[in-house]
Write a structure and sequence with these properties.
Elements: H1 2-5, E1 11-14, H2 23-51, H3 58-84, E2 89-91, H4 92-125, H5 130-133, H6 136-162, E3 171-172, H7 179-183, H8 191-224, H9 229-257, H10 266-290, H11 293-317
Parallel strand pairs: 1-3
Antiparallel strand pairs: 1-2
Helix pairs in contact: 2-3, 2-10, 2-11, 3-4, 3-10, 4-6, 4-8, 4-9, 6-8, 8-9, 9-10
Length: about 325
């Protein structure tokens, strides 16, 4: 309420797709299909990991947490995006809530990817100590820390953005309430707030990414010492999926959030934002299922088990 009292603006107009005219209906169908695919893909990953005991390992535990975070991360953005193709208004408080949850899950994902890099480092570089280094108790603590750290950083950023006064300008040149397009509407100097937001971005993006880079340097050194080519290939294959997601997620997020607001270019930035709000959640289940034989085998086992159970139930009913 105190944030709203310092502003004359009570709602924002999201302009992200308002200029597309008749193409909005086509986009609605495309985004709806992608939304359903993202939900079904990530739910499949979570279900398979929970049902198959062979996947009850730290790596798949963090993948399960990541998929759960991706589902909520997508729910925060895509339903409102679909509505925005028909209506483009969002209230001041709803805008703040959307930004809080979007950034919270996005930052949690960044930290989770860093923890997953450490998990690969421990598994490949210290296999004998792996059960101790990545015990279930440690996995739970790391997962909880990622969530708490992500949402605390999000709360800080949202407070910094919405504690600014918004006088009359209320047209957000984006398809959801993101930091740069919203903070540009403030009717005061935002340099100090933007600097603190930039520091939060560095802590959430650069620090985990550097940690991942150091982990993979150690992993590469260990893999090169493996005498057999098959052993090297198998060790690296367990990291390939994680590396693919890391490059896309950190690359797009760094491009958007680790630069001044003045450099925000709406059309180009919207395209990059679509990549990490839609493509990355869509890519995660595909990369981890298509490139991971363990997940492929588990999916087949779950499908066969499901059909077997249905056949058994039908035979009893007959």
């Amino acid at each position: 309420l105190s944030m709203a009292n310092s502003s004359c603006v009570t709602e924002f107009l999201l302009l992200g797709f308002s200029s597309l005219g008749e193409l909005q209906l086509v986009l609605f169908m495309i985004f709806l299909c992608l939304y359903l695919i993202i939900l079904s893909g990530n739910i499949t990953i979570i279900s398979v990991i929970c049902l198959d005991h062979s996947l009850h390992t730290p790596m798949y535990f963090f993948l399960c947490v990541l998929s759960t975070s991706e589902i909520f991360y997508t729910i925060v953005i895509l339903p409102k995006m679909l509505i925005n193709l028909l209506s483009v208004t969002i209230s001041f408080h709803c805008c703040a809530i959307q930004m809080f949850f979007f950034l919270g899950f996005a930052m949690t994902n960044c930290l989770l990817l860093g923890v997953m890099g450490y998990d690969r480092y421990a598994a490949i570089c210290h296999p004998l100590h792996y059960p101790i280094l990545m015990s279930w108790q440690m996995c739970g603590k790391l997962g909880a820390l990622c969530g708490i750290g992500g949402f605390l950083a999000s709360l800080t950023v949202v407070y910094l953005v919405f504690s600014l006064p918004f006088c009359s300008a209320n047209k957000v040149n984006h398809y959801f309430c993101d930091i740069s397009p919203v903070i540009r509407l403030a009717c005061t100097n935002t340099d100090a707030h933007e600097f603190v937001i930039f520091i939060c971005g560095v802590l959430v993006l650069v620090v985990p990414f550097l940690f991942i880079c150091v982990s993979y340097i150690c992993i590469l050194r260990t893999i090169l010492k493996i005498p057999s080519a098959e052993g090297r290939r198998k060790a690296f294959s367990t990291c390939a999926s994680h590396l693919t997601v890391v490059i896309i997620h950190y690359g797009c997020a760094s491009y958007i959030y680790l630069r001044p607001t003045a450099n925000y270019v709406s059309n180009k930035d919207r395209l990059v934002t679509v990549t990490y709000t839609i493509v990355t959640p869509l890519l995660n289940p595909m990369v981890y299922s298509l490139r991971n034989k363990d997940v492929q085998v588990a999916i087949r086992k779950v499908i066969v088990g499901t059909f077997s159970s249905l056949s058994f139930c039908n035979s009893i009913a007959i």
